[in-house]
Fold each of these.
Amino acid sequence: MAEYNLYCFAQSGNAYKAALMLELTGCDWGSRFVDFFNGETRTPEYRKLNVMGEVPVLLHRDVRLTQSAIILDYLAEQTGRYGWSSEDERRDIQRWMFWDNHKLSSYTGTYRVLRVFSKESNPGAMELLKGRMMNAYAILSAHLAENDWLAGNRMTIADISACGYLYYQDEIGVDFAETHPAIQRWLDAIASLDGWQHPYDLMPGHPLPGKG
Ligand SMILES: N[C@@H](CCC(=O)N[C@@H](CS)C(=O)NCC(=O)O)C(=O)O
């Protein structure tokens, strides 16, 4: 059994944040596929594992963690990589991770679910989410036009958190090279690191059955 075990599935940008951190830091980790699209996170067994019914969940020795930001914070401490060098910097990193969880990943992830995975069409919800998502991209882009990284003048877990959904560009229906070149430059810089893999290569569950 690997040292770290991650409950994940390939379409989850939130799980990808943890998987990417584990891979970039060379951790000995294994994946446990969660059959999200067939309702596994709604089962009583899964709710015992995570009362919030969400992916990712990380197991490490006798520690069980949920929430990607907390998992990244823990892994930064465990590995000594992509973390902070002062308490002020830690707060700055957390500030971006809270923003990512609320404004960037959640609107992008929900919009993508409606656009690509949902059987029902909901144009009103999609328009609302797309507007919020595009506002978040404008904020991210403005920051990255002035800074190479989100916090601390070097790559940190804030960057690993915020990039989580943005490698699924074709499914989101955006082309950052065209619309937000500063975001594309930053995504390319992360993707050039040793060990980087696209979420569909790093985690199990792609392609979805019937979508081969
Ligand atoms: N803030 C959480 C969000 C986790 C999340 O929403 N995960 C999705 C999969 S990408 C999920 O499991 N959703 C199930 C649900 O919300 O019921 C994190 O960053 O870990």
Amino acid sequence: MSLIEPVLLLPADESGRTKMTEYIEKKYGIRPALTVARSILSRPIEGYIVGKGKRYILVTATHHALESITTNIAFMLIDLLLSKENVGSINGVDCKLLLSKFAFIIIPCVNPDGVELRLHGIADTPLKERQMRMSRGDLSTWQANSRGVDLNHNYDFGFVTYKTVEREHGIVPGPTLYSGESPESEPETHGVANLVRILSPVAVVSLHTQGEEIFFGPNDEKSTRIADRLSSLTGYSLSVPKGTSAFGGLCDYTASLGIPSFTLELGRGRNPLPESNAPRIFSRVGNAVAILPTLL
Ligand SMILES: [Zn+2]
């Protein structure tokens, strides 16, 4: 079991370092191996690589600003995998062997600007006026990035159809659900999608909250079988995205490329879930995600 105490993700210092990047560096001497992109406000979106294999499992967290507890979960996964990399097993799986064949690419926070905005309010940036208009002074439901685009609706899947949904529901740039001007218009999503195109991961996991559910795709035998196993390992139920949830998400996009893709809606309650829930959530899902390669 990971020993990372839940700590606030931000503020990061100017180079994007957080308490958790420092924790991992101190314990293992490891820094993020790649910068996937820089956010609109120039914060680095970093990824860790754990494992030496050339078959990649991509794990992302905190597309949504209210769901930053998933960043804690991502770091707990990094900690678990690194602690077992050379010795030990998880659910009977030999980790050294596992991580010689596969590598996890883990991006703990896709939306650092959104998290910073939600936690610390509107700062004096070129977006200040716009953010004040979009939020109407209330950041308590802010999920989007710094310019009001919901990053998990900005990937290239169902974009044109979703624009009609937006019109019907009066969805505009703001706290949630707005998909942006075009697919991957935001550097955050463009960076992640580029990484997918470069690495061709064999599976994608996107961490969200809440509901103790797993959404998956494509709807084929392989992904269904893996989802069934994840469901039995975690106790989470399997669900099909409905309504606004069925468009523009990372896993919608990667599933459309044929990659087995799993959105995990972690925990139960009301967003934002308290960070103190992280160890309990991780005890349900951590091992399952860690041994996902063996389910492929
Ligand atoms: Zn979410």
